[in-house]
Amino acid sequence: MNKQKFQSMIDEFTVNQEELQQISAAFRRDIEMGLVDEQTSSLRMLKSYVGLPAGDEQGEFLALDFGGTNIRVLRIKLHGHGQFEILKKVAKPLRVQGIYDFIDAQAKAEDLFDFIAGLVDEAIDENHEQEFLLGHTFSFPSEQTNLYNAKLIIWTKEFATKGVEGQVVNDLLSEALVRNGVGNVRPTAVINDTVAVLLAAAYKQSSTYIGSIYATGHNTCYLEPYKGEAKARMIINLESGAFNKIAPNTYDKILDEQSEKPNEQRLEKMVSGRYLGVLFGLVIANGFGASNKSYDFTSIDLSAILSDETTALDDVKKIMEVKLERTILQEECEWVRALAEAIVVRSARLVAATFAGIIWHLDGDTVRKQHIAVDGSLYEKMPLCVESIQKALYDILGEQASALDTVLENGGSGLGAAIASAIEPVT
Ligand code: BGC
């Protein structure tokens, strides 16, 4: 393998300033077309039936956070004034290799929701006397008709449990709670995790209108003002991971074809943690002359590769030699690292381009001073992500980007679910 060949593969992951601006403009167009008619946009534009919190919401609530391979149930007390307290937290994985798996194509809805009901029971210390209201952060594309009623449109993030798509998820949950003797817990609100992040961030500080998840999956929501229309402001879950106006490169195409749901979630497959390691593995297989092989890398490997500060890139060498089962030269370690950097930086730049598209829709050419709330392991922990988002915002918006401040809203899914239970719905 030679350096030029490797470099040309890396080049497939670069997005220049002009391309970024075009992506932002296309994203804005998809929002504006989607507001008129969702069928004409690749964004799902899902209504959440909530606006922003006032910050004075109070009370004790259960919060179910269902969106990744780990499921969490929390008991949260809201004190108002942006203050809250976590009284109890239980968490379990939905899949333990060789033991159980509630999210693969063999798993059934009943078993999955029975497992969740068990966790809820733990969170309330098996107290079956008191009534509890439960806010549910369900982080998959769902069609809502009100704050309670959300029907799963399609699984994402490679989830595949049978019998959930097309169903009202809170009904499946309520039935499981009753079956398991926990009928005193009443699911009230269901929201997407991006909505939860926005609610949680806005509960603590005003001037926050955009909430995003940058983790295993990716998605963004924002507060739609319905300018010039007599409609109450409402948070719209864009399902931006489904955005499909970015030209895929060779590896994006292969990844998509091999995924659970080809043609769906095209942006998510370019940017989110579930897929970055897979993309990296595809390029490595091609680069190291074994394109018939697949290498199992994860975004945690990418993070380790980018965090290697040794001069000889010892960690990179170790990771690669274990996966490829052969000796890796120092020069090759450098290419590998450059590839990891290109994949992660492209991801962050594309995410930033979608933020800029929303800002253009909301503010036009005069960007208001505001925070953009983001939660997720990539934003929090992946080297290069935060600074690449900021740089890309400047590339797209110029000096106007100085009005924007992206903030980490850690653990927003739980707090947001509790706020959604406490808040007045928008009808
Ligand atoms: C889902 C979104 C979710 C995002 C982040 C995506 O796969 O479609 O609903 O917000 O992941 O968890």
Automatic annotation (TrEMBL):
<dbReference type="Pfam" id="PF03727">
    <property type="entry name" value="Hexokinase_2"/>
</dbReference>
<dbReference type="GO" id="GO:0001678">
    <property type="term" value="P:intracellular glucose homeostasis"/>
</dbReference>
<keyword id="KW-0547">Nucleotide-binding</keyword>
<comment type="pathway">
    <text>Carbohydrate degradation.</text>
</comment>
<feature type="domain" description="Hexokinase C-terminal">
    <location>
        <begin position="210"/>
        <end position="422"/>
    </location>
</feature>
<protein>
    <submittedName>
        <fullName>Hexokinase</fullName>
    </submittedName>
</protein>
<dbReference type="Pfam" id="PF00349">
    <property type="entry name" value="Hexokinase_1"/>
</dbReference>
<dbReference type="InterPro" id="IPR001312">
    <property type="entry name" value="Hexokinase"/>
</dbReference>
<dbReference type="GO" id="GO:0008865">
    <property type="term" value="F:fructokinase activity"/>
</dbReference>
<dbReference type="GO" id="GO:0005524">
    <property type="term" value="F:ATP binding"/>
</dbReference>
<dbReference type="InterPro" id="IPR022672">
    <property type="entry name" value="Hexokinase_N"/>
</dbReference>
<dbReference type="InterPro" id="IPR022673">
    <property type="entry name" value="Hexokinase_C"/>
</dbReference>
<comment type="pathway">
    <text>Carbohydrate metabolism.</text>
</comment>
<dbReference type="GO" id="GO:0004340">
    <property type="term" value="F:glucokinase activity"/>
</dbReference>
<dbReference type="GO" id="GO:0005829">
    <property type="term" value="C:cytosol"/>
</dbReference>
<keyword id="KW-0808">Transferase</keyword>
<keyword id="KW-0067">ATP-binding</keyword>
<keyword id="KW-0324">Glycolysis</keyword>
<comment type="similarity">
    <text>Belongs to the hexokinase family.</text>
</comment>
<dbReference type="InterPro" id="IPR043129">
    <property type="entry name" value="ATPase_NBD"/>
</dbReference>
<dbReference type="GO" id="GO:0006096">
    <property type="term" value="P:glycolytic process"/>
</dbReference>
<feature type="domain" description="Hexokinase N-terminal">
    <location>
        <begin position="6"/>
        <end position="203"/>
    </location>
</feature>
<dbReference type="GO" id="GO:0006006">
    <property type="term" value="P:glucose metabolic process"/>
</dbReference>
<keyword id="KW-0418">Kinase</keyword>
<dbReference type="GO" id="GO:0005536">
    <property type="term" value="F:D-glucose binding"/>
</dbReference>
